[in-house]
Design goal:
Strand order of the largest sheet: 2-1-3-4
Number of domains: 2
Radius of gyration: 18 Å
Oligomer: single chain
Shape: globular
Pfam families: LMWPc (PF01451), Phosphatase-like_N (PF21234)
GO molecular function: arsenate reductase (thioredoxin) activity
Order of helices and strands: HHHEHEHHEEH
Domain Phosphotyrosine protein phosphatase I: 85-210
Distance between the termini: 42 Å
Keywords: Arsenical resistance, Oxidoreductase
CATH topology of the largest domain: Rossmann fold
Largest sheet: 4 strands, parallel
Helix content: 40-55%
Protein name: Arsenate reductase ArsC
Structural class: alpha/beta
CATH class of the largest domain: Alpha Beta
Length: 216
């Protein structure tokens, strides 16, 4: 595949990694999206993180993971859904509350629903205290990463849950919106994050009941 990433700010290793990612995504979405669409989503996903200052060796991997999520969302928007509900969890930095909600929802809903998360001003990394709090409940969110939201992800969601992002959270017609009033775990000690975690878990159980989904 011809590289579309010959930018001056990319190292040779990053160029190779992005081209390899594009090849993987092209195989994964063969018959759904063409190489041009996949390259565009991969490039814009890379740019989102690079412009945010995340110039690290992991940028191509983050771009690939984010592009994959966006392509799955776009496929659903264009009629490729499988009937499962999609929930989008949003907070300001996608580093604490929305990541805990995502972790609980995926663990409890299992394969019965899909869930994504995003932030209006996404952080560089997940709050490590939040990761520790979730690990106490047997849920590993250490591999997750803060990310923005995009139009196709919003359009694919059936339910949008907001947590402290205020007016920064966009409103799309036809979506079901829920707002959970939760303390921000940023800067808090583990003992103070636990009650927030437990409240989020209760909210997730209630949401699963509202969606008529069984809890694992």
């Amino acid at each position: 595949m011809t590289s579309t990433y010959k930018r001056g700010d990319l190292t040779i290793d990053q160029q190779v990694a992005l081209d390899t990612a594009a090849h993987r995504l092209s195989k994964e979405f063969a018959g759904t999206f063409g190489a041009e669409t996949i390259a565009r989503f991969l490039q814009t996903s890379y740019d989102e993180f690079a412009e945010h200052g995340r110039v690290t060796n992991f940028l191509p991997l983050l771009a690939e993971r984010f592009a994959r999520q966006r392509l799955h969302a776009l496929a659903r928007v264009e009629g490729g859904g499988d009937g499962r509900p999609v929930v989008l969890f949003l907070c300001a930095h996608n580093a604490g509350r929305s990541q805990m909600a995502l972790g609980f929802f995926r663990a409890l809903a299992d394969q019965n629903a899909l869930a994504w998360s995003g932030g209006s001003e996404f952080a560089d990394e997940i709050n490590p205290t939040v990761v520790a709090a979730m690990a106490e409940r047997g849920i590993d969110i250490s591999a997750e990463f803060p990310k923005p939201w995009t139009d196709e992800v919003f359009q694919a969601a059936d339910v949008v849950v907001t947590m402290g992002c205020g007016d920064a959270c966009p409103v799309y017609p036809g979506k079901r919106y829920l707002d959970w009033e939760l303390d921000d775990p940023a800067g808090k000690a583990l003992a103070d994050v636990r009650p927030i975690r437990d409240e989020i878990e209760r909210h997730v159980h209630d949401l699963l009941a509202q969606l008529d989904l069984p809890s694992v």
